[in-house]
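Q: Sequence in, structure out?
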Amino acid sequence: MDRKYEGLIVLNTKGKEDSVDDLVGAVAKEMEAEGAKLEEIKQMGRHKFAYNARHLDGGHYVNYIFQADAQQVQKIQGKLKLNALVHLQHYQRLG
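A: Exactly. Output:
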């Protein structure tokens, strides 16, 4: 059963600040390849971290709103874990 989810993804844009839209689109395509039906993508911009994590001082935050079932969300998490440009990811079921 498909449910609505919110995925907060923090992208490592170090050295790639000019192609942020391409990175956001590439992550969206990876999510759709795993069966997610994207409804909305909100780019929240670059924010500094409270401390340097893995030699990064900040990242580009993107909020993806999508429909999927629980197994698809696990597949998305597994696939994005392998993507070096994805620094952090957090998913939350809405409603």
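The first helix runs from residue 20 to 33.
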